[in-house]
Amino acid sequence: MGCASCHGMDGKGGLPGVGAPDIRGASEARVRGALAGGVPLMSSFIKLNDEEVTAVVAYLKYLNERS
Ligand code: HEC
Questions:
Q1: What spacing in Å lies between the alpha carbon of 5 and ligand 1's midpoint?
Q2: Does residue 11 contact residue 23 with C-beta atoms inside 8 Å?
Q3: Nearest residue by C-alpha to atom 29 in ligand 1
């Protein structure tokens, strides 16, 4: 399951009932914290290595600047 399943293709969040927030422009610390256990819904089944986290953060930054 990808981030978009809950946070939406554009990162704006809003899948009804899930409560996933708008994450466009989220800092690396927020993404790491959520995946490290801050958000059990995410950390329980999403495992990303450092490189993947860096790529996700870069993409969220791009989404934030684009809109
Ligand atoms: C199963 C649904 C689900 C998936 C899949 C998911 N998330 Fe989340 N995410 C959530 C929910 C729900 C919250 C809000 C939790 C809260 O506010 O307590 C959240 C919160 C966050 C936050 C904010 C954390 C904070 O402390 O500010 C970030 C950043 C985030 N998600 C990034 C991601 C990324 C990146 C992915 C893909 C690698 C992802 N999420 C996949 C459901 C999901």
A1: 10
A2: yes
A3: 31
